[in-house]
Structure to design on (877 residues):
């Protein structure tokens, strides 16, 4: 059995599955249920200074549905905790006392002034919490007050606040990053420079999920008006994976621990975040959609997959795919593939044909009897047919062996690796020597 | 005294009213909105979709399903009605398992096709329940066209002609329009008087005058029609029923299945409709199944369907055969009637087993008898009342192209015309296409 225990910036947890700072971790009742269900840790919903904030009394969430009302993404306009600081601190202390083996991280968001951090940090430390997470990410509401993503979008502020925290607490400091920024490496570097023990990402993405066409207002709609909210769930996973990998690949932050967040719903999502450099993952939307029990699937699935692959511990998986994440310019231009259609598996829907004929390279022929065949002379190996085919593995990409002529280009497939940096069409190409 | 399934003879009220009500309610209940959305989501939106090719009326099925999935049920309905104005009835009675759903790529992939028929019903119901007619007439052409027979073919033809701006007189021999939709299809396929509601809805196009109780050969002659109208369309169906050709066929309670079905369809109180304790149906088509299943649903204790060939040759689809079996109908194959016994009324039917020989079906010499209070004949219908001099093929009106007969100015379609399956949807396609051809010829 693979060992799922995790030690992340010195914080131990029985597995890498943490609940993200969000509604599911807003109070003692929920967190106890989460721990009883098997979650390895939680990031307690963001605390602020009293007087505590208030939330809207209308809807807080908007949603993007797939077929059968499958939740693909949720956005929210909920603010940080709307309960008194003392209440939260008391509950955190009680839960940590009863679940000493679980990771208890406390998310914090106070004004960008050192006194505010000096005031709250000792109180959190007193609860016995294992660490803090600085919420520099929420893109709605709090950002209007100069907090959340308003800080996260200014690397200098990130560095400054991170440093204050490091100077005023012995707890590990995790900096939570906003994706609402052009280059995620900048805030990560700033956090690193400020002494952060780790970063966590992504926080939610600025979004309007839908428009109520009767009220002519964005959803969720509160008394006829709506505002942008933070988007999360399976729909944001690709954005999160890229940002996690960017930080893991960046020489300046290459060894900075990462807690991966963004659409994690299954063991496979967990494995992918780990492979791209995460040491733990944080989950919210999947739990909000299905309840806490999903952690059982994550634990069993990840464990089984690790056993099958021979990975003994989480550490062995973390960052494993990073060497294979590169820049476009280093991709091998001598790697030539062609689409291949398995005629036995084909159900003759013709989606590959429509996609290729209408929107790609006219590289699929439709023959009598609805037989679809790839025209190698036209196929650029774009993979669109593979992606739109409803049958798994019916269309695959087959590599042309070295020495064979690509009927499209008329060129013989060269065995050696060659990329854009040395390509004759590249004005900046270095001469091959 | 209350009757039961075991009461001897032919009696009404074998089942309590609530059982009858549930027995004759919708065979395929309507989807609710969410079910429709989930079902629609399964459609792959195939290129040049096989389901469309398989539909005799060539409804753009992927498009209407996509319209359902985007919440536009009425737009979906319009997509359907543009090709098939009786799309509501076809959604209920089409043997989809042999047509669109058989061609569905998900049938090939998983053995579970997209439920096109039920989705079509969902869409068409949405518009028809609001009693909205989606088409308007074109500018008047001044042409007058006679349509004889107000069944699916005639209705489709009349509607398309009216849309084009022609004036149509729609004749039918019965007391109600609708043809087999009204008189010839099992009740549970079209409950709540849907057939009449559909006719009324269809006629909202305007320009169609309905004349009931007028039969070709009885007051209507093809000569008068061709004299008085610019064109004539015949959709007169198959009024004759084939005989068993077995001694004793003239005994009482030996009936045509189509008449039993028509009587059942026109009965407002099914608890008053008598049915035998033992019912035998001879035949292997949809009519045989409709008669047998409905006999069982009325409370007959024992219903047996006897067909002279094997199951694979039955005209009734596998779905229909399974439906019959699930309702408790016993199906005997490879047996043909040789005598009807009884004193006045039928008491027993004698059958002889058959086998497939080199020269066709051969009797084996082995016989058996089935108790029968009623015997329903469902061994096919034939054309009756075709105008003299009109060319026929295999006993049906010869047509070329879009329903042109050998007589000038006369078109034909539906069951009375040669070729094509005798299906509602085929009749609709033929009526529609004949209308287009008539229009092209009159206006060309």
């Amino acid at each position: 059995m693979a060992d799922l225990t995790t030690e992340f910036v010195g914080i131990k947890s029985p597995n890498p599955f943490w609940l993200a700072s969000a509604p599911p971790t807003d109070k003692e009742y929920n967190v106890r249920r989460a721990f009883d269900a098997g979650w390895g840790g939680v990031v307690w919903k963001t605390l602020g200074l009293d007087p505590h904030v208030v939330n809207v009394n209308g809807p807080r969430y908007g949603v993007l549905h797939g077929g059968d009302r499958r939740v693909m993404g949720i956005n929210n306009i909920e603010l940080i905790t709307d309960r008194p600081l003392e209440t939260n601190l008391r509950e955190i202390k009680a839960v940590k006392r009863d679940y000493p083996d679980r990771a208890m991280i406390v998310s914090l968001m106070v004004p960008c002034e050192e006194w505010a951090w000096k005031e709250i940090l000792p109180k959190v430390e007193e609860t016995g919490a294992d660490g803090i997470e600085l919420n520099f990410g929420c893109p709605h509401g709090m950002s209007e007050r100069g907090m959340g993503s308003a800080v996260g979008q200014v690397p200098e502020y990130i560095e400054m606040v991170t440093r204050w925290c490091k100077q005023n607490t012995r707890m590990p400091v995790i900096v939570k990053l906003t994706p609402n920024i052009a280059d995620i490496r900048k805030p990560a570097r700033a956090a690193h420079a400020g002494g952060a023990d780790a970063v966590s990402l992504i926080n939610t993405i600025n979004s309007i999920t839908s428009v109520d066409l009767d009220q002519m207002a964005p959803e969720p709609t509160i008394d006829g008006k709506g505002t942008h909210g933070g988007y999360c769930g399976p729909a944001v996973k690709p954005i999160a994976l890229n940002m996690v990998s960017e930080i893991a690949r960046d020489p300046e932050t290459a060894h900075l621990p990462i807690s991966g967040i963004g659409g994690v719903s299954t063991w496979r999502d967990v494995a992918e975040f780990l492979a791209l450099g995460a040491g733990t993952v944080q989950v919210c939307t999947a739990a909000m959609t299905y309840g806490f029990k999903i952690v059982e699937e994550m634990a069993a699935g990840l464990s089984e997959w690790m056993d099958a692959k021979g990975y003994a511990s989480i550490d062995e998986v973390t960052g494993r795919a990073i060497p294979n994440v590169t820049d476009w310019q280093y991709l091998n231009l001598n790697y030539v593939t062609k689409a291949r259609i398995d005629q036995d598996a084909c159900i003759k829907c013709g989606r590959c044909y429509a996609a290729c004929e209408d929107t790609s390279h006219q590289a699929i022929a439709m023959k009598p009897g609805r037989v679809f065949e790839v025209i190698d002379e036209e196929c650029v190996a774009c993979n669109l047919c593979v992606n739109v085919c409803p049958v798994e593995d019916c269309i695959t990409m087959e590599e042309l062996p070295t020495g064979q002529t690509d009927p499209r280009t008329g060129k013989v497939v060269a065995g050696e690796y060659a990329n854009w940096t040395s390509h004759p069409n590249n004005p900046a190409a270095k001469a091959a020597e | 005294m209350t009757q039961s399934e075991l009461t001897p003879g032919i009696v009404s009220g074998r089942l309590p009213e609530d059982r009858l009500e549930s027995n004759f309610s919708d065979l395929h209940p309507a989807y609710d909105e969410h079910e429709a959305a989930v079902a629609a989501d399964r459609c792959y939106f195939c290129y040049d979709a096989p389901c469309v090719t398989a539909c005799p009326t060539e409804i753009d099925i992927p498009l209407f399903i996509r319209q359902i999935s985007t919440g536009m049920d009425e737009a979906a309905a319009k997509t359907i009605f543009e090709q098939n104005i009786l799309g509501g009835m076809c959604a209920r009675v089409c043997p989809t398992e042999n047509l669109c759903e058989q061609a569905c790529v998900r049938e090939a992939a998983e053995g579970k096709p997209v439920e096109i028929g039920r989705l079509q019903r969902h869409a068409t119901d949405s518009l028809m329940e609001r009693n909205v007619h989606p088409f308007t007439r074109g500018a008047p052409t001044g042409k007058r066209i006679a349509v004889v027979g107000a069944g699916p073919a005639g209705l489709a033809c009349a509607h398309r002609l009216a849309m084009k701006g022609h004036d149509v007189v729609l004749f039918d021999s019965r007391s109600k329009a609708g043809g087999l939709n009204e008189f010839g299809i099992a009740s549970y396929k079209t409950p709540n008087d849907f057939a009449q509601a559909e006719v009324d809805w269809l006629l909202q196009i305007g320009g169609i005058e309905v004349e009931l109780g007028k039969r070709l050969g009885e007051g209507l002659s093809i000569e008068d029609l061709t004299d008085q109208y610019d064109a004539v369309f015949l959709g007169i169906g198959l009024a004759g029923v084939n005989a068993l050709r077995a001694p004793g066929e003239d005994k009482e309670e030996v009936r045509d299945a189509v008449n039993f079905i028509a009587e059942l369809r026109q009965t407002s109180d099914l608890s008053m409709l008598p049915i035998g304790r033992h019912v035998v149906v001879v035949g292997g088509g949809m009519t045989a199944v409709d008669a047998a299943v409905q006999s069982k649903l009325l409370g007959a204790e024992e219903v047996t369907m006897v067909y002279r060939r094997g199951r694979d040759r039955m005209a009734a689809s596998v779905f229909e055969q399974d439906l019959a079996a699930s309702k408790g109908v016993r199906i005997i194959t490879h047996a043909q009637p040789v005598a009807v016994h009884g004193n006045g009324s039928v008491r027993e039917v004698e059958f002889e087993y058959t086998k497939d020989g080199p020269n066709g079906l051969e009797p084996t010499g082995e016989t058996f008898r089935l108790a029968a209070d009623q015997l329903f004949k469902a061994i096919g219908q034939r054309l009756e009342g075709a105008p003299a001099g009109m060319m026929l093929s295999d006993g049906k009106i010869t047509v070329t192209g879009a329903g042109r007969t050998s007589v000038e100015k006369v078109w034909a379609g539906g069951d009375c015309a040669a070729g094509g399956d005798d299906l509602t949807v085929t009749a609709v396609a033929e009526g529609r296409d004949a209308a287009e051809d008539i229009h092209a010829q009159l206006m060309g």
About this structure: The longest strand of chain B covers residues 360-371.
